[in-house]
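Researcher: First entry.
Model:
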Amino acid sequence: MDRPGLAAFLRSRREGLLPADVGLPAGARRRAAGLRREEVAQLTGMSVDYLTRLEQSRGPQPSPAMLTALARTLRLTDDERDYLFRVAGHAAPDRLVMRPHVAPALLRVLDRLQDTPALVISALGETLVANDLAVALFGDPAHRQGLARHDVYRWFTDATARRVYPEADHDRQSRALVAGLRSAHGLLGARSRAGELVVALTAASPEFVRLWEEHGVARRFEDHKVLLHPETGPLELDCQVLFTEDQLQALLVLTAAPGTPAADRLALLRVLGTQPYERAGAGGGPSGGS
């Protein structure tokens, strides 16, 4: 581990960011350029003392999970993320393996979307980061573990995951999720997380097996959706998508047409937040399409 190198790199990246770059208000006049340590620590989920010690070349070796969180907060590119891992004494993650590092370009767009649900998902339907309205609509992804982090796995193994969609849309959603998984399986290979999902779902769901054998292949997110929320009722939303160049991540933005009941219900959802939804239980996820 190169402590001086790590310290200098963290300081330079923190000082190179503005509050607006990470979705924070500018606030009072700042004495120094860049983000405050308190802001980086809060966004990363670490203590200010820990970050201070890292920036002063006297901290312990950060774990890969902590480095991943720092890379997200500091909006690092893949090359910068790889350097961060190496200077901290870890091997750089394999870029072809699905990982929770979110593309900085997508994060910059997400940071500016506060009045409509928006989230970044992986090619396997894992929610990597979501704004408050998306959490209120779909539930908090931070509570999900293992294969249950993927929409397709929950859809075929947990009946509660289907509550967010009307029953009439269940077959279409099932086919879209399976077709998306096959697309990811072809991209990432049988030994990847996609292959692990196929093996697990083949053992768990006859419905999945039937649809998998149809060999449908598609990545469809742009759609006109009806989503069900336990407090607001149905929301008729349009879903638009922005992919990264490697097609491994996508930013999903859900909007309601102005002046519609769905627009009014989204406004209500902004007021309600996540508490009513948490009491009702987490539902499904955003993946799938037309």
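Researcher: Second entry.
Model:
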Amino acid sequence: MTISRRGVLLGAMGLPTSLALAATARPASAAQPAAGTDDHTTDDPATAYVDVSVATLWVSPGTDRPVDLPSTTNPADPAGWMAAMSLADRVWLVGELETQASYGQAVRILARSGDWVNVAVVGQPTPRNPLGYPGWMPAAQLTTGRGFAPLTGRPFATVIGDTAKLYHTPHRIEPFLELSFNTRLPVLSRTPDGVHVATPADGPKWLRREDVAVYDTVADIPRPTGGDLVATANRFVGVRYLWAGVSTYGFDCSGFTSTVYSAHGITIPRDAGPQHDAGVPVAREDLRAGDLIFFAHNNGMGSIHHVGMCAGDGDIIDAPTNTATVEGGVERVKLAEHRYIKEYAGAVRYL
């Protein structure tokens, strides 16, 4: 057994020989088989692609509640899910979720249990699995992407707005799907006011030119300054806290920092502890904009439990967690006045 960043016990997972991915919309019922039942394994995990705007990964299959239905169907409704949950509902999710993945993101299939699959999210580094960040999600939210996979090496459009509408036609009258910030899709062609993109399972669609930036490769994304990172982070002040969240519908602390860095072409580990370990240590008196600041149990001497971003001027931007009485969310405050300041555990730099 291993321990996740959230203190949840995780068992060893097998790998599937095959996966029949659902082609129709259906919910993931709370009455699914327990992990390990109907499991299929293989030594060669297949690749699949997220087929909903934001997919939410769970610690175990079938633990979702009725209020979670908008997060487990295809199409998913992350905005509706967040709006429907009370503070108590969101607090309950602590320890139940792993991470999220965006539309078109690749995952590796690790195991199957009924209508759920255990996957590793490609592009979310973690010491827990070299393939990517692991968790369970409904099979109905994935597609094999046979026509999509060969296009993933093309130039891509990345959403630079808080959200962006994906449209059926170049006239952009009828929206097909709303995408979150930092969603990336292969580009097929461009017009002066539109970008023609491939989708995982629904053929070509269109985005407004002003909603995206287009790059040939991730390496072509301009190297940011610390100020660039802080400017991006500032945009999301007020976004609600969601345990495991990596989208503009809800962030957790390390999902927030990793997403901001990713949007600027820099991949860092998904979780706070590994983010701390992978960066270059920085003394508190040498902090500058864009550095990551960490907090740990036992007055800063124990395990890392929180991360935020230095915003300059003595400020920190972070996504503090929900409590039973306090709604968490992205905020900018003075570091010296931060709720966890007595647990300050150091800082690192990636630039």
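Model: Note on the second entry: Residues 161 and 211 are 5 Å apart (CA to CA).
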